[in-house]
Amino acid sequence: MFAADQPLTQNSSSLLISFGRRRADPSRGDSLRTVLFHPSGGRLGQYLALVGHLSRRGPVHGVRGSGLHPGEEPHDDVHTMADLYAGLLADRPEPPTLLAGWSLGGLLAWEVAHRLAADGPRPAVVMVDSFADPWSACHTARDHLRRRILDALPDTTDAEERALAARTADAHLTASAVHRATPGSPGPALLLACESEELPTQRDGWLRRDPALDVRSLPCTHFEVFDAARTPLLLRHLDDFLAAQAPADR
């Protein structure tokens, strides 16, 4: 059972990790089945507040990146990851109703949603400051992104874990540097975009693919999204988006 103060472990031989659920909150409904996808680097720890919030409405799972454990190989292609992750979810007894993620995680949610919608119900998608076009088209250097990813590792990370995390981050940055999101809507979708100089290009890239996309802004930078001070607004946007979905989509 998930507890609000429980860290999100990466120690699983499976890429699909269950975070369980908390006691249902009747005022928020009880019909979500959520899957959260890893950002570049493969870890899930930044989603602690999201897990605590969404687990009141149904079970929450996370998909971590391959490469974080000895003997695993990281993936450096978005399509490869999306195919693999869609296969993991296709084996579940009930399909997910919400796919979400930050950065690369949001892009993976979008791509997996396209695959699931081809053969079943369309899940809702929430992308937190994700880009439809390669991040290499933006004004952020790869070395800067890599450094910020590794700086977020827990202080208890040992040398072997750090080396595996660095290799996984490199693979994911390679993947997102060239990937262009699949056009067309896989289902109802929300983009939470940070207010930066990249916002117009970021928004337009997604709207070219899905003109009905719901776009809302966050007054912070990419790596501030999950700071405690930013969390209430992020969760409020999320709740507003979910409340707007028709019962048939849930």
From TrEMBL:
Keywords of this entry: Hydrolase
Q: Which domain of life is it from?
A: Bacteria
Record keywords: Hydrolase included?
Answer: yes
Pfam families in the cross-refs? Thioesterase
Please name the GO terms that the record assigns under molecular function.
hydrolase activity
Xref: InterPro entries: AB_hydrolase_fold, TesA-like, Thioesterase
Domain called Thioesterase TesA-like: residue spans? 46-242
Respond yes or no to whether keyword Hydrolase is given for this record.
yes
Q: What is this protein called?
A: Alpha/beta fold hydrolase
The protein's organism comes out as Streptomyces hintoniae
